[in-house]
Amino acid sequence: MRSKIPYALFFCLFSASTFADYSLLIDGVSKHFGCKKNRHNPCEYNEINPGLGIELSSKTSNWGIPFIRAGAYKDSYSDAAAYAAMGVRQDWEISGPFRFGAGVMGGYLKSKRQDGAIALPFIYLTYKDLALELGYIADTQILNQRNKAKSLATLGFRWDF
Questions:
Q1: Could you give the CA distance from residue 87 to residue 27 in angstroms, rounded to a whole number?
Q2: Total-model pTM
Q3: C-alpha–C-alpha distance, residues 75 and 111, integer Å
Q4: 122 pLDDT above the threshold of 90
């Protein structure tokens, strides 16, 4: 399974002509909800998750902004994790340089405790070229039965350049 991540990264680079806009992703924090604490499960998570990624997107679509992204970060168990994902987002002008948006992405996550499909709906607030993204997974146990927390929220930044 480890060999799938280089293929996903190659796909991201190969698609650079289709996806002409680049963004730097800065992974930040997570918050776990609904964990039942007991002596076998202390519910202790690392909720500071530094990491970096890159996104390639196209801002020319009328029906939404398709994107592909890949990156690596320190997960909630303090292990290294890597991901590759694709999705679509749509934003609307609020006032001047402020925009609000929503999107969904799905892809592949590889870490010590998770190896497989991921899905993440998210909302974001953009000021000029900097976006604050808030993602939420309502039931993390659908993706991995070993997850102890019921739901998960993520917070990160996207810098378009």
A1: 17
A2: 0.81
A3: 8
A4: yes
